[in-house]
């Protein structure tokens, strides 16, 4: 039950699974909201460490400090997650991809659309979106760049042709940065 | 069963409503699923000569889209189930609308972080007149 780090990989593997078992493969999208963690671990450690060292003298001032962190954590909005899952009961294989970025939703639904075409037994070659997606993955793999890059290039090009180059550069740098963070943050 | 499928417009309205029930809440789930509609489509049973009749279909098949809120037995009364059938001709139009509804509904996801970009552009603006 692998989680793919790139949505393109998920799409490619799901398409292959769908090709093998077109009738039984089901694609499920789960959107779930969970309350934000009350106190992030890093904060907890930082607040608890000083209290441990000088417990005898500053037990009472430490408490207000802990109280102060609580409201800031409570202000945090609940976090949403999106998990895409391709499951085939016939072969028992499951492919997953998860994200929490709102910017990816449109692209992911497009991917669902390309998979939908395969489900409908339409040739994937006709689908422009699907073909573009596959080309993008190939290019991304070849260049060794992150999967997020493709979206960054695509969206400004289609969305706002007016103020061109500056936006494109920003668009490119932004997902790249996100990618790096994601890798660091991973278990 | 087939009679209970909604039309596309109705499906989208109810799906938007389903997402809205989770708006400003700190918990909850929305499940969306899609699969080939093979029920009642005259696909032949597998035989020894043709063990995978699914793989060699001449005609196209509709896609079944479902949505529900994940409530099961103890909360059966709160369960919402939606389903619609998309024919091959409508696929692109459907998914276009589907993306819109999903994007509008999934509000708890992280918005694109623009703080860094803003900081950068501010620095550039500050730096430009000085140099």
UniProtKB/TrEMBL annotation, chain A:
<dbReference type="GO" id="GO:0006614">
    <property type="term" value="P:SRP-dependent cotranslational protein targeting to membrane"/>
</dbReference>
<feature type="region of interest" description="Disordered">
    <location>
        <begin position="37"/>
        <end position="77"/>
    </location>
</feature>
<dbReference type="InterPro" id="IPR039914">
    <property type="entry name" value="SRP9-like"/>
</dbReference>
<feature type="domain" description="SRP9">
    <location>
        <begin position="6"/>
        <end position="119"/>
    </location>
</feature>
<dbReference type="GO" id="GO:0005786">
    <property type="term" value="C:signal recognition particle, endoplasmic reticulum targeting"/>
</dbReference>
<feature type="compositionally biased region" description="Low complexity">
    <location>
        <begin position="47"/>
        <end position="77"/>
    </location>
</feature>
<feature type="region of interest" description="Disordered">
    <location>
        <begin position="129"/>
        <end position="187"/>
    </location>
</feature>
<dbReference type="InterPro" id="IPR039432">
    <property type="entry name" value="SRP9_dom"/>
</dbReference>
<protein>
    <submittedName>
        <fullName>Signal recognition particle 9 kDa protein-domain-containing protein</fullName>
    </submittedName>
</protein>
<dbReference type="Pfam" id="PF05486">
    <property type="entry name" value="SRP9-21"/>
</dbReference>
From TrEMBL, chain B:
<dbReference type="GO" id="GO:0006614">
    <property type="term" value="P:SRP-dependent cotranslational protein targeting to membrane"/>
</dbReference>
<feature type="region of interest" description="Disordered">
    <location>
        <begin position="112"/>
        <end position="131"/>
    </location>
</feature>
<keyword id="KW-0733">Signal recognition particle</keyword>
<dbReference type="InterPro" id="IPR003210">
    <property type="entry name" value="Signal_recog_particle_SRP14"/>
</dbReference>
<comment type="function">
    <text>Component of the signal recognition particle (SRP) complex, a ribonucleoprotein complex that mediates the cotranslational targeting of secretory and membrane proteins to the endoplasmic reticulum (ER).</text>
</comment>
<dbReference type="GO" id="GO:0005786">
    <property type="term" value="C:signal recognition particle, endoplasmic reticulum targeting"/>
</dbReference>
<keyword id="KW-0694">RNA-binding</keyword>
<feature type="compositionally biased region" description="Basic residues">
    <location>
        <begin position="113"/>
        <end position="131"/>
    </location>
</feature>
<comment type="similarity">
    <text>Belongs to the SRP14 family.</text>
</comment>
<comment type="subunit">
    <text>Component of a fungal signal recognition particle (SRP) complex that consists of a 7SL RNA molecule (scR1) and at least six protein subunits: SRP72, SRP68, SRP54, SEC65, SRP21 and SRP14.</text>
</comment>
<keyword id="KW-0963">Cytoplasm</keyword>
<dbReference type="Pfam" id="PF02290">
    <property type="entry name" value="SRP14"/>
</dbReference>
<dbReference type="GO" id="GO:0030942">
    <property type="term" value="F:endoplasmic reticulum signal peptide binding"/>
</dbReference>
<dbReference type="GO" id="GO:0008312">
    <property type="term" value="F:7S RNA binding"/>
</dbReference>
<keyword id="KW-0687">Ribonucleoprotein</keyword>
<dbReference type="InterPro" id="IPR009018">
    <property type="entry name" value="Signal_recog_particle_SRP9/14"/>
</dbReference>
<protein>
    <recommendedName>
        <fullName>Signal recognition particle subunit SRP14</fullName>
    </recommendedName>
</protein>
């Amino acid at each position: 039950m692998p989680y793919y780090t790139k949505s393109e990989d998920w799409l490619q593997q799901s398409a292959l699974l769908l090709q093998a078992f077109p009738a039984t493969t089901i694609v499920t999208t789960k959107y779930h909201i969970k309350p934000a963690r009350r106190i992030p671990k890093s904060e907890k450690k930082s607040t608890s460490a000083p209290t441990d060292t000088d417990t005898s003298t500053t037990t009472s001032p430490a408490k207000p400090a802990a109280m102060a962190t609580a409201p800031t954590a409570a202000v945090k909005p609940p976090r949403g997650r999106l998990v895409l899952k391709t499951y085939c009961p016939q072969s028992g294989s499951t492919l997953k991809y998860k994200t929490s970025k709102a910017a990816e939703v449109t692209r992911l639904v497009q991917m669902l659309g390309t998979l939908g075409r395969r489900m409908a037994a339409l040739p994937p070659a006709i689908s422009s979106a699907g073909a573009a997606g596959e080309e993008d993955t190939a290019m991304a793999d070849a260049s060794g760049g992150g999967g997020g890059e493709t979206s960054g290039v695509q969206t400004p090009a289609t969305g706002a042709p007016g103020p061109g180059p500056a936006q494109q550069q920003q668009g490119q740098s932004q997902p790249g940065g996100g990618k790096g963070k994601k890798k660091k943050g991973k278990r | 069963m087939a009679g209970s499928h909604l039309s596309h417009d109705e499906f989208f309205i109810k799906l938007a409503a389903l997402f809205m029930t989770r708006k400003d809440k700190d918990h909850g789930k929305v499940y969306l699923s899609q699969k080939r509609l093979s029920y009642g489509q005259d696909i032949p049973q597998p035989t020894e000569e043709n063990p995978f009749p699914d793989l060699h279909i001449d005609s196209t098949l509709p896609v079944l889209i479902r949505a529900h809120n994940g409530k099961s037995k103890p909360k059966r009364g709160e369960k919402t189930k939606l389903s619609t059938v998309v024919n091959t001709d409508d696929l692109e139009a459907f998914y276009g609308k589907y993306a819109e509804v999903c994007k509008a509904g999934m509000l708890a996801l992280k918005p694109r972080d623009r703080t860094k970009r803003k900081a950068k552009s501010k620095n550039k603006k500050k730096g430009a007149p000085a140099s």
